[in-house]
Task: inverse folding
């Protein structure tokens, strides 16, 4: 291990300081041409440099355990990477002598101490007091040598509190003592091997906000900038580079941590995954070459250098592209890979999958209701069969007949022979070809075209058959909208994208069309659903909802399907219009924000819309509300100036 203690301090503010003082800081070799920009060939030197460093590391060093040492840093504390925490000692220092009972501590992730849930009560009984900020994060205050960490955490906590204006709540005081259950069951030795205790299980009665906050703290402490270099985390990619007094610093985005947790490190301080890091450095220079003009690349003889922010943001989007491409490649190369792609570069909130993932609608009513639903379905189908609503000679016959009935009955419009899908020859695909407020009737098994295998009107079936082939990325939006769904393949305008099983805040969508006498049916994905549940609202959406009628030929049981409203590229966030409606309670009138579709399935929330829209589109209904107050002030100022200037002169 590198024994220069000042090398510990590598963060955005202090990295520079340490770089100045350190004598063996990493720098690119000066031996080559002095005016040559730093190019990938030289990056290989970095990697060989790091190989050397790796070799210097004692073999038996297990970085998952903090090692004992007597060496103290110049600042008077022991570098965390050189500390050992002996759980029993810790307990002794806290006056807990019954070590058999209190098998308390698992040491993980550098310096975070996890307390086994069953011990929490014992600790409570033995009156061990933990500072509040530590209890929040489920840390233990373990030894005096950790004091500085505690102070650090304290400062961090105060900062966060100020930043997010968090207030203490009553429950917070109690959080530490709440029993928890680990993720994995104990192994044969009775030891819990779960990687982490999920906050929701740990705090079953905590509100969602509290759970998020605790998770946030826990994560914060795992990536503390000061110790980023000792964390056992892989570098995901390098975001930025600067040279300060001939010392090179790289800004690293760590795997599993948000972008804002990126830290400045010197390669020499990277204690884990060095080879990986060297590769990332190499990739960084490769990517940088693509965006920074040759003239502006850092030259070796310059002792100070930083990349202009314009190039850094270009580099980030380049990385994003590369990352997504590699995700797609991984999926394509592995035909069995039915994994969900999840990406969160913005914060530390956990998985969005707090619902049961299902691939078919489930009926949530009682057995009686289910039976009557099945009976109704059967009757409808029998009626449809008897009426001959299936293709007898040509594909599309069934849909024309059904459409005729529907158009005349519901829309009272004149019927013209109708086609649901149109073949676009030049681009070789079938697209939907009528407005979304009409139902689509698809061919069924009784149809002759189905029997002969030349049906062209069964898009929903194709969508279902292909549902694993359509690739999506679940991604954090980076604003208050939470998670969203991103296309990982292009879709052409009019193509079906995904079957929808939820709508709006309530994650539900009413299906009933026009028969007020029939029981209403709703697709509700609050507890179960598919990926469509994660699609956000937009006032200028790239998806549009169509309703498709299949086997039972029942217009009150359509399958909502999202079709591409325009061409969608890889990386575009998917969105559709929730048709948010405000009911004006005083006047009893409703305002529909989108008149293009019928208002049968609008979300109507009596005291206003369920959320302020943050879709960011030019057509956003809440755009004005998000505009910076500065502008308004400016406007007000201008107005008042104008009104002053307009004042008629008296006399
Ligand atoms: C069906 S969920 C969509 C997935 C959701 N973003 C998540 O993380 O679970 C609908 C919720 O997402 C949020 N949301 C969706 N679109 C939004 C928008 N345009 N502006 C603000 N919030 C939005 C709202 O909180 C809404 O209740």
Result:
């Amino acid at each position: 291990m590198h024994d220069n203690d000042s090398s510990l301090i590598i963060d955005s503010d202090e990295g520079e300081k340490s770089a100045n003082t350190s004598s063996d800081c990493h720098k690119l070799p000066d031996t080559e041409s002095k005016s040559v920009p730093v190019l990938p060939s030289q990056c290989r030197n970095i990697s060989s440099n790091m190989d050397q460093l790796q070799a210097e590391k004692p073999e038996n060093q297990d970085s998952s355990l903090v090692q004992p040492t007597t060496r103290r840093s110049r600042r008077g504390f022991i570098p965390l990477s050189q500390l050992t925490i002996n759980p029993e000692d810790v307990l002794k220092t806290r006056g807990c002598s019954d070590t058999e009972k209190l098998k308390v501590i698992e040491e993980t992730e550098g310096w975070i101490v996890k307390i086994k849930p069953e011990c929490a009560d014992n600790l409570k009984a033995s009156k061990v007091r933990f500072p509040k900020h530590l209890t929040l994060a489920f840390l233990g205050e373990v030894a005096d040598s950790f004091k500085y960490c505690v102070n650090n955490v304290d400062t961090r906590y105060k900062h966060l509190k100020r930043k997010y204006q968090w207030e203490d709540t009553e429950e917070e005081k109690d959080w530490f003592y709440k029993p928890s259950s680990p993720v994995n069951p104990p192994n044969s030795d009775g030891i819990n091997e779960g990687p982490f205790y999920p906050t929701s299980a740990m705090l079953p009665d905590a509100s969602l906000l509290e759970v998020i906050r605790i998770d946030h703290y826990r994560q914060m402490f795992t990536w503390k900038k000061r110790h980023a270099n000792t964390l056992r985390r892989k570098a995901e990619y390098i975001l930025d580079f600067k040279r300060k007094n001939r010392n090179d610093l790289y800004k690293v985005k760590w795997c599993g941590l948000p972008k804002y947790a990126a830290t400045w490190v010197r390669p020499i301080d990277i204690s884990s995954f060095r080879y990986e890091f060297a590769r990332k450095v190499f990739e960084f220079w490769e990517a940088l070459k693509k965006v920074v003009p040759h003239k502006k690349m850092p030259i070796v003889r310059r002792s100070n250098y930083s990349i202009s922010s314009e190039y850094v943001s270009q580099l980030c989007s380049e990385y994003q592209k590369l990352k997504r491409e590699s995700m797609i490649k991984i999926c394509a190369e592995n035909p069995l890979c039915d994994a969900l792609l999840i990406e969160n570069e913005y914060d530390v909130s956990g998985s969005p999958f707090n619902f049961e993932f299902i691939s078919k609608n489930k009926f949530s009513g009682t057995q009686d209701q289910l039976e009557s639903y099945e009976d109704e379905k059967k009757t409808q189908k029998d009626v449809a069969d008897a009426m001959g609503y299936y293709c007898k000679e040509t594909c599309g016959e069934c849909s024309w007949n059904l459409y005729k009935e529907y158009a005349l009955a519901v829309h009272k419009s004149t019927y013209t022979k109708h086609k649901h899908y149109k073949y676009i020859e030049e681009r070789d695909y079938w697209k939907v070809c009528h407005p979304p407020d009409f139902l689509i009737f698809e061919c069924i098994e009784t149809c002759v075209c189905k029997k002969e295998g030349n049906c062209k009107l069964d898009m929903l079936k194709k969508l279902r058959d292909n549902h694993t082939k359509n690739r999506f990325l679940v991604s954090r939006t980076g604003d208050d909208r939470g998670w969203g769904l991103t296309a990982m393949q292009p879709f052409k305008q009019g193509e079906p994208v995904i079957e929808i099983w939820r709508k709006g805040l309530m994650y539900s969508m009413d299906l009933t069309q026009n028969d007020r006498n029939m029981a209403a049916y709703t697709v509700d994905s609050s507890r179960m659903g598919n990926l469509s549940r994660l699609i956000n609202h937009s006032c200028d959406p790239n998806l549009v909802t169509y309703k498709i009628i299949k086997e039972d030929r029942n217009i009150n049981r359509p399958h909502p399907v999202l079709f591409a409203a325009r061409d969608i590229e890889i990386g575009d966030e998917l969105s559709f219009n929730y048709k948010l409606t405000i009911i004006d309670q005083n006047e009893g009138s409703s305002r529909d924000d989108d008149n293009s579709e019928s208002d049968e399935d609008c979300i109507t929330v009596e005291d206003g819309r369920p959320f302020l829209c943050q879709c960011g589109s030019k057509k956003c209904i809440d755009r004005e509300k998000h505009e910076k107050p500065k502008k308004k002030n400016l406007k007000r100022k201008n107005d008042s100036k104008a009104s002053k200037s307009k004042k008629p002169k008296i006399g």
Summary: DSSP finds 16 helices and 24 strands in the chain. Residues 309-333 form the longest helix (25 residues). The chain has a mean pLDDT of 59.
